[in-house]
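Posting here for the record, re: FE2/S2 (inorganic) cluster.
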Amino acid sequence: MEPDPGVDTEGADGNGAAASDALPDLKSSLGREDWSTWPVYEAAALGLPGSWWYPVMWSEEVGSRPVGVKLLGRNVAFVRENGKVYAMADRCPHRGVPLSLGNQQFPGTLSCAYHGWTYDLETGVMVAAITDGPDSPICGKVRVETYPVAERLGLVWIFIGDGKGSAPPVETAIPRELLENDFSMGGRIDVRGGGWRFAAENGFDEGHAKYLHRTSLWRMFKVMPTWTKTRVIPTDDGWITRVQDEVHMDATFPGLGTWTNKRWWKLGGNIIHTKPGKAAKKVDPVIAAMDVPGNQHIRLPGLLRIVHTRFIHYEWYVPADEDLYRYIQVFVEFRTGTSGLLFKLRYLGAIRWLFHGQFTGQDGWMVNVMDAPPERLYRPDVSITRWRALCESAPPNGLAIPDEADAEPEAKPERKPRSRARSR
Ligand code: FES
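Prediction output follows.
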């Protein structure tokens, strides 16, 4: 494999020994001073170029009363009428009042709270200025931007960005296994600080889980490796995947001693294994059929997938502004009926707090305090540089699967989860 730009492999010979006895130079220790190697990524504080489907909030959060949400640096108003969700720019062109403060005075419209300018939900055209009478000459001369909206997985999705052209089917943004199988899910949506790019990098980061999360309650009884050697390879459906070539449960550091995550109370079990099918005697059949070469996957515009033997964890990083992002976690088990109901109870009683709360809260802590560039990357950071390289190839039409960009997507009916838990 070719060396990755920005990843230090020199002197990293596997035992941590320094290449020489001389002290490292302080200036070179600062490493990379900017992200100019990845110009698209560097400029993407408010999201990647083009327009993309992003999940925003739970479907039941949108009713006939408008809801304002910050996305990609813009304010967007969502409102539901006759079961359908609409989205438009959350700013009245008259005097800049948020349209989400308004309400519906006529079917198919949203009226501003201040002077009653009234906008068509489909087109965004101002169809009435209530306080200027039916013959108002400004009527029809003003428009606000509207956005394509869809509902899948119990979430409201929006197609938004700087791209031109029509939106591809929302199914292009949803992992295939969630379109083709029944499942139960639990989820949690938070607005976090630190920026969507740091959040995505943390999600796909090779090095941190086995160290940062060793103190998490979620991993209390499961031992994790000390270190690994990893490749990142492209896989299907636009994913790139981390593949572990070596997994070391403990290591002796010259002059320092031995370090391991093993404790007498921790059982076997390993979040990082080469293939789920080899990691447990009983693998969920849907997950086994996926036959993934590694557990950690990421794809554009910022969707992480962690495949375990019995469940899959997903997380979306949706830019709100340059600092804030919507952190959408979804935990899926491919079970329904009574089994799905029991999963829901487990999610609400434990998983939501231990995994989607305390465990990923440790991630949120780091994302919020990280300060880079400058940055001095090390060998495991191949995961980060490969992710950035993937972002450089972001297609402008927002299709996460470039090879299928021209193909007519097969119409697939939505499979509604039988049970789903949520928190706000
Ligand atoms: Fe909206 Fe005046 S600010 S109608």
